[in-house]
Amino acid sequence: MFFPKKVKFRKWQKMRGKPFKGVSSRGAKIAFGEFGLKAQEGGLIKTNHLESARKVLVRFIEKGGKFWIRVFPDQPFTKRPPELGMGGGKGDVAGYLVPIQKGRILFEIDGLAKDKAVEALRQVGGKLPVKTKIIAR
Known about the structure:
Layout: E1 35-39, E2 43-46, H1 47-61, E3 66-69, E4 75-79, E5 92-100, E6 105-110, H2 114-127, E7 132-136
Antiparallel strand pairs: 1-6, 1-7, 2-5, 3-6, 4-5
């Protein structure tokens, strides 16, 4: 699973407003591979989404290519137990997530034929909670 080795602050404050508004200028171009998966909308991607997408890519690539995950979940989110009354503070850290803006490259792949790479990225896009688009260099 993806999570940071060490964090400066265990719990972060809640994001206010619309943190996914706008278009990403950082990480918006393919840098490593030949094909990429680009976010078409903003949203939150949790560690379990990235892990399931990584498993799909590993299964597709076998020994023929290489892939890069261009995002890392470093923002903690908390959750309180069910049926708990008001008060008692903030809940325990339940996991980590990464906020995504529109236009961000999430995955890159190289060393595969075009049809196989496109199919792999199409299946990866189905594992993520945001709309995605496959792009080529």
